[in-house]
Amino acid sequence: MKVNGEHFRTIWADPRLKSVHIIDQTLLPHRFESVQIHSVEAMQYAIKTMQVRGAPLIGAAAAYGVALAMLYDDSNASLAAACKDLLATRPTAVNLQWALQRMHKHLIAMEPRRRNVNAWKEAVKICDEDVKLNQTIAQHGLKLIQDLLAEKNRAVAKTVVKGHAPPQTLNILTHCNAGWLATVDWGTALAPIYAAHDAGVAVHVWVDETRPRNQGASLTAWELGMHGVPHTVIADNAGGHLMQHGQVDMVIVGADRVTRTGDVCNKIGTYLKALAAFDNHIPFYAAVPSPTIDWAIEDGLSEIAIEQRSADEVARISGKLADGTTATIQLLPAGSPAANPAFDVTPARLVTGIISERGVCVPDQLASLFTEKT
Question: Which residues pair with 34 in a beta bridge?
């Protein structure tokens, strides 16, 4: 995708294969800066502090973290330690585990002296594959958007007694950030929206602010604005009201982990949007590349570990002051405790369909698209 007309990925290797560049997402939307990562420890910090975030991007960053470890010590012990320490940074997103298992399997089978170069090659391959997966998701989701808009136009046309009905806009609600900033490029939930906009389809996006870290207000809105996609930021609790009044036509979210049965684990608050969509007969889709599917588990509520993040994320908020400087302020009364579960699980019964690189299916048919996994 582009920033001020210039193409960027969220993560890329230095040409000398001595470091990795990332976009520091903690500075957005007020500052756009990249950071150079020189060690596996620095990559662990970047993942843990959410300089990089989003399940697919975390996986890519972890792969590069292993490559950085091999740069200085290509032993079995170093490989095992790097994978173990990187895995501990974020417990919920399965892409992290997937990427580390892939890197370990690829490297442990070869002589240590060959691991440095091959680690970089495999990390680059993981990144390139992510982009292709998301481009394919974009096309499958585009067809859904086109069909829903055509249906909306037909329904409106039936209500017009004389003359022609004005062309309609498809209003899509999304939660958190599942755009290109959450992946290597293109995004998951936003990928079909970008494809639709680029194809001339009239879309408008309701952007949940997504407390407590405000990834919607800070990242999704920034992305959509850069790409010229019409959008409106709303408070998290406004979505149900908009659905009741016919102002939402579909919901698309990303995911940090999806079970083999179609339960969707995503940013906290997703479950409430799914309930509201179900009550108002609005289609609810999760856009999910296959590395986000955890084929080893069936019950998301009981089997997915939910990350409990710092209470400071709830108690404080950062923003730009009138003089242009940024500051972090305290929101809560002194002494008030805060809880901060980072994710929730939406049961498959509330999910209309899952959009993967293999196509669109109802949740309980997910395994039929990936028969090699069953």
Answer: 23
Q: What is the pLDDT of residues 26-48, one digit of tens each?
A: 999 999 999 999 999 999 999 99
Instruction: Please name each of the domains of the chain with its CATH number.
Output: 2-127 (1.20.120.420), 132-373 (3.40.50.10470)
Are the CB atoms for 274 and 348 separated by under 8 Å?
A: no
R_g of the chain computed on alpha carbons: 21
Answer whether 219's CB lies under 8 Å from 179's CB. Answer: yes
Is residue 256 annotated as a catalytic residue, yes or no? yes
pTM: 0.95
What does the pLDDT look like over 323-354, one tens digit per residue? Answer: 999 999 999 999 999 999 999 999 999 999 99
The bridge status of strand 231-234 relative to strand 203-208 is: parallel
Residue 131 confidence class, pLDDT cut points 50, 70, 90? very high
Which of the residues 256, 263, 294, 344 is marked catalytic? Answer: 256
